[in-house]
Amino acid sequence: MSTEIREKLLQEAGVKSQSPASGVGLAIKADLQLPWYTRRKLQRYFREFGVPTESEKTMRQQLLKEFPFSLHAREEPVTIKDWTIHMCPVVSFPNLIAMVLHYINMNDKAGTLVSPAGVPRDEIWVKVGGDHGYTSFKFCFELANTAHPNAIYNTMPF
Q1: Considering all CA atoms of the chain, what is the largest pairwise distance in Å, rounded to the nearest integer?
Q2: How much is the average pLDDT of 38-48?
């Protein structure tokens, strides 16, 4: 697509700037629930048409500002179904309570906390779950006090 055609299309669409606003890329990634590798494919597609996007490095830096917890990654020996031991990546963080409180505060500021049926108005219910795959084990928590507590965007793995 030529520069002239692209600029005409953007002008007709009402786009005033061709540089992405800060945080838009991260918001799109979160709203569409895109993993990083899919976002990279999308970025390459946009580049073909000359549409600028935020770099992954910029987006990850923004994410770290919003998620103020240190993560610790290491490999640990894990026994799997066939009783063999494999080295598997393990990620942990020091304070689950602080993370849950941070998530509750984020939802409170966004105005997404609700009182579903059966939950007293002065209580916040946190659901904890887990999943065992062949080579991995995952824990997550969800706030029951959201409009769609079982939705993927309300499930926080830890």
Answers
A1: 63
A2: 85
**Residue 138, class by beta-carbon neighbours within 10 Å (0-12 exposed, 13-18 middle, 19+ buried)?**
exposed
What pTM, to 2 d.p., does this model score? 0.55
Question: How many residues make up the chain in this entry?
Answer: 158
Question: Tokens 């990620």 appear where?
Answer: 91
Which among 104, 91, 100, 88 is positioned nearest to 128, based on CA atoms? Answer: 100
111: left (phi over 0), alpha (psi -120 to 50) or beta: left
Angle between helices 36-48 and 24-31 in degrees, nearest 10: 120
Rounded Cα–Cα distance for residues 129 and 2 (Å): 51
Place of tokens 């393990």: 90
